[in-house]
Design brief:
314 residues, FAD/NAD(P)-binding domain, 2 domains, 7 helices, 19 strands
Length: 314
């Protein structure tokens, strides 16, 4: 091995529930994993307040504290956690190469990708200020907190339709703000929205400002054709304009769908590159939950262990 090149059995790229769970399993299997956290150690849960739907926390837990627990558990079994990004990879050979942002060159017998996905936001100052104070990008995660209250959903695709339908079972009125004069959602999702009495669709409408200092107290909306403004008395504001998987550095190597989600083989976490496995929201555009991400992190570590055993590395 050349000077300055580090050889590892298992490189985990990205943290969050998938990466840390993969690390726990990989470390317990003596894969001696090295985990690079990326620019957002802990992933999206680091900007999440109350998590009440993860098993094992009967009283709920703050997102950052949960990720701290995950990290400590991974380190307890020997995971080498590094607070740095992987900037480049080269998956041409049987040994996979990666370079950190500070120039470290790593040669890995196996790689687990767990870089996650980031929610797309509108870019409003008030949206950023009130994130986790009534502004959310996940109805399944946070809708429970708004039972019996009016809420707004922004978006016109399947994600927005699904969020609105989910919230309609909890909230008396769901305002769906659609930028155009039609939905982009599939026909069946459109029909479900239109047949749900407490979903009120606002066509040609955009959110101009989210009102409130410490909590959402309403949203100022504007009709982008007439210019007419209105204020909706909502307590929750859900942005449902999609997610972007954090997979750009792998695009020259890994097979992805048109939006950048990594495609895995069957029910496994295997990718088109032998010895490279994908877990969490980087490959899941359907469920996007902490518990499902953790589950695929476990799967990726087990897949990597089997691969390395067959290869004779362990």
């Amino acid at each position: 091995m050349s000077e300055g090149i580090e050889r590892v059995k298992c490189l985990i790229i990205g943290s969050g529930p998938a990466g840390y769970t993969a690390a726990v399993y990989a470390a317990r299997a003596n894969l001696e994993p090295v985990l690079y956290t990326g620019k957002e150690p802990g992933g999206q849960l680091m900007i999440t307040t109350d998590v009440e739907n993860y098993p094992g926390y009967p009283d709920g837990i703050m997102g950052p504290q949960m990720m701290e627990d995950f990290r400590k558990q991974a380190e307890r079994f020997g995971t080498d956690v590094r607070y740095e990004m992987i900037a480049k990879v080269d998956f041409t050979g049987p040994v996979h190469k990666a370079w950190s942002e500070t120039g470290n060159e790593i040669h890995a017998d196996s790689v687990i990708i767990s870089t996650g996905a980031s929610a797309k936001w509108l870019g409003l100052e008030s949206e950023k200020r009130l994130t986790n104070k009534g502004v959310s990008a996940c109805a399944v995660c946070d809708g429970f907190f708004f039972r019996g209250q009016e809420v707004a959903v922004v978006g016109g695709g399947d994600t927005a339709a699904e969020e609105a339908l989910y919230l309609s079972k909890l909230c008396p009125v769901v305002h769906l703000l659609v930028r155009r004069d039609e939905l982009r959602a599939s026909k069946i999702m459109q029909e479900r929205v239109f047949n749900t009495e407490n979903i009120k669709v606002h066509w040609n409408t955009e959110a101009k400002e989210i009102l409130g200092e410490n909590d959402v107290e309403g949203v100022k909306a504007v009709n982008n054709k007439s210019g007419e403004e209105s204020t909706l008395p909502v307590k929750g504001f859900f942005v449902a304009i999609g997610h972007k998987p954090n997979t750009d550095i792998f695009k020259d190597w890994i097979t992805m769908d048109k939006t950048g989600y990594i495609q895995t083989n069957g029910k496994s976490t295997r990718t088109n590159i032998t010895g490279v496995f994908a877990s969490g929201d980087a490959q899941d555009n359907v469920y996007r939950q902490a518990v499902t991400a953790a589950g695929t992190g476990c799967m990726a570590a087990l897949d990597a262990e089997r691969y390395l055993t067959e290869k004779g590395v362990i």
